[in-house]
Amino acid sequence: MTAETSASGATAPRPAHRPTERTFHGDTVVDPYEWLRDKTDPEVIAHLEAENAYADARTAHLDDLRTALVEEFVGHTQETDLSVPVRRDDWWYISRTTAGHDYPAFTRVAEHPDLPRGEGGVPAIEPGVLLEGEQVLLDAQAEAAGAEFYSLGGLVHSPDHSLLAYAVDTTGDERFTICVKDLVTGEIIDQAVTGAGYGLAFSADQQWLFYARVDEAWRQHQIWRHRIGAPAGTDELVIEESDERFMIGFDRSRDGSTLVIQAGSTTTTEAWLLDLNRPTSAPVPAGGRHTGVDYEVEHAGDRLLIVHNDGAPSFALAQAPLTPSTDPSSWEELLVAAEGERLLTVEAFASFVALELRSGGLATVRLIPRRADGSLDLAAARDITHGGDLDTVELDMNPGWEQELVRYQLTSLLTPPTVAQTDISGDRTTVLRRTPVPNFDPELYVERREWARAADGTAIPLSIASRREVAADGTAPGYLYGYGSYEISNDPAFAPTRLSLLDRGVVIAIAHVRGGGEMGRDWYEQGKLLTKKNTFSDFVAAAEHLVSTGAVAPDRLSAEGRSAGGLLMGAVANLAPERFRAIIAGVPFVDTLTTILDPSLPLTVGEWEEWGNPVDDPEVYRYMREYTPYENVRETEYPAIFAATSLNDTRVFFVEPAKWVARLRETVTSDQEERPILFRCEMVAGHGGRSGRYRKWEKRAEELAWLLDQLGATELIG
Question: 51, 219, 328, 535: which has the fewest C-beta neighbours closer than 10 Å?
């Protein structure tokens, strides 16, 4: 039996070798598969379709399991459901889901004394039943009719609530058409702007709509204003970011007065303010640009609040006057992160501020009252805590400037998202909604925090969950998830699809490896640039911890990572292939060096502050050459691998896993009948894969059915 043909008779695609050479710093690399990059080439499309057919054939025996998994996902979901209503001026805004529908409907109802009330004074609303006077603003299911892919990139109402602006992507390339709807007549009054990026905001007089544009490298580099009803050709450029390391975006201040514009690279920020009452005015500086100074500006009505790292590695909270300034020395320091903390962002309200931070490796929120003069009463601050070892607390939707209660969301691996609200004292804390999870008994499961020991002695946190009856006797199947880049924290959160793993005896763990932000800014710094390999060795240490403690069997441990987490998967497959039985690599960044060497590709120049610049720096080139997965596949036994991508992914091109899979198949010595290497490419989708919840569930069922089959864990244990 060769690697090419399975017992079913399916033949693995073998793309032709068409060598191209790459030479940097005296090192020449011959790449036989770079030709697969051109998605306009019919041969490339034919190859991708052949890969999909091969994946179909090699997983056909799992049809019944896939069907069962989808039924379980649906069975753990209240299909006809709704969000907690959100108060915006005199309206309550709601999103509703309906059984059988992939996409939600967005509705609203006017505030009036006769509304039925639930906890916390929020309107009491039933799933599937509109209140009297409730208006459907946008039915995404109807809008998506006939589209293979549909995604909203923004949804905002005008200041007087008479207009709705929303952005639509029907290909997955994250370039949007902007629609403006008259909520009185129900008519679409503007669809002039196409190819937009993320971000929408109305001017105070709602005559103008602000939006962003991306360049050829998909870098969001311009902010524009569009007069509603006018041709896009008459739009006006507000500001342009010419430095390729920076992307630019914006948000509307909570009091509606100001457009806060921020450009940022990985290490440096610059901010401006634009008066929305004078929408054609020019933005004014709000901090300037200073290399290495990373900050975020929040308009707080009578002052600015700034979370920054100027002289504060774990960040500090400062305030500054509203007058234009490019000098951080004008910032008045209010609060510096304590040891073990990382300040993240601040949201301002008329009577208090909410500061999001990390403490002890977990996300939480600190509430700080404002005095009558608008200053912050730091002595009266309090943190929102719930006491669980794996509790994640984050701010929820809080659009009201004058509101006296703040909403937040609590979750963990075994706690479904729970929306609550509290006042500054904590005396009025109310749970507004616990996400209903049918057929779920939390008493059947346990969750815990453990610590692995990295090679350099660093303690690596793991979040772990399992069925209560699963013993740590070294026999259980295991699943380890990781990410570890961009200071993104992979916090414990509930996912109904994981119940299907837990109920088959799989021990689930998240490795909070360096390169992420779980343990603060220094945690991130220790897993980027010339310390990036720590991310990979930390993950292997986490895997070894699960085995050495008896939590999982040494031959039944699987792993998953997506995007930069897909790089992690490729790297650990090369570093410790014997440690993993099977790996899922979603939209994996596995041809890392090729991408970071090409400044013309999307995001590359901006990524140099994350990975280093291998074009100009031979040390960075050498270091990346040592870990880039595609170029380091070894002739040894590997785990089974399932790589998944999308043809229209702008962030990680489909060619990366296409090349990687081809090299794996021709290099590894594994029995590929027992440990197959599969590749799935969605032909109309982007970085997030399929759109629509049912189609996403079908995709997830395919991946998990394959994984459970590889682990020998296809049967329910309870």
Answer: 328
Rounded to two decimals, what is the model's pTM? Answer: 0.96
Q: What is the pLDDT of residues 556-572, one digit of tens each?
A: 999 999 999 999 999 99
Q: Catalogue the E-assigned strands of 476-594.
A: 478-481, 507-511, 557-562, 582-586
User: How do strand 478-481 and strand 507-511 relate by DSSP bridges?
Assistant: parallel
H or E element that contains 373? none
Sorted by sequence, the CB contacts under 8 Å of residue 429 that are 6+ apart come out as: 420, 421, 422, 423
* Contacting residues for 570 by C-beta, under 8 A, at least 6 apart: 585, 588, 590, 629, 630, 660
Distance CA 715, CA 712 (A): 8
Instruction: Return phi, psi of residue 127, to 5°.
Output: -60, 135
pLDDT in tens, 135-158: 999 999 999 999 999 999 999 999
**Residues with Cβ within 8 Å of residue 441, at least 6 apart in sequence:** none
**Residue 59 contacts residue 51 (beta carbons within 8 Å):** no
Residue 627 Ramachandran class (φ > 0 left, ψ -120 to 50 alpha, else beta): alpha
| Residues forming the active site | 563, 649, 687
607: three-class secondary structure by DSSP: helix
167-190 burial by CB neighbour count: b if 16+ within 10 A, else e?
bbbbbbbbbbbbbbbebeeeeeeb
Count the Cβ atoms, other than its own, within 10 Å of residue 411.
22
Helix axes 618-627, 533-548, angle to 10 degrees: 30
pLDDT of residue 718: 73
**Cβ-contact 24, 615 below 8 angstroms:** yes
Please check the confidence at residue 325 and state whether its pLDDT lies above 80.
yes
- For residue range 355-400, what is the model confidence (pLDDT) as tens digits? 999 988 889 999 999 999 999 999 999 999 877 788 999 999 999 9
Tens of pLDDT, residue by residue over 158-179, are 999 999 999 999 999 999 999 9
User: Which H helix or E strand runs over 466?
Assistant: strand 459-467
pLDDT for residue 603:
78
Please classify residue 2 by burial: count the beta carbons closer than 10 Å to its beta carbon, then call 0-12 exposed, 13-18 middle and 19+ buried: exposed
pLDDT band at 3 (very low <50, low <70, confident <90, very high): very low
**Cα separations (Å) of 229 from 206, 208, 235, 550?**
11, 9, 11, 65
pLDDT value at residue 406: 96
Q: Cα separation of 714 and 294, whole Å?
A: 48
Per-residue confidence (pLDDT) for residue 361, from 0 to 100? 87
What is the rounded CA–CA span in Å between residue 384 and residue 398? Answer: 16
Q: Quote the CA–CA distance of 642 and 530 in Å, as a whole number.
A: 29
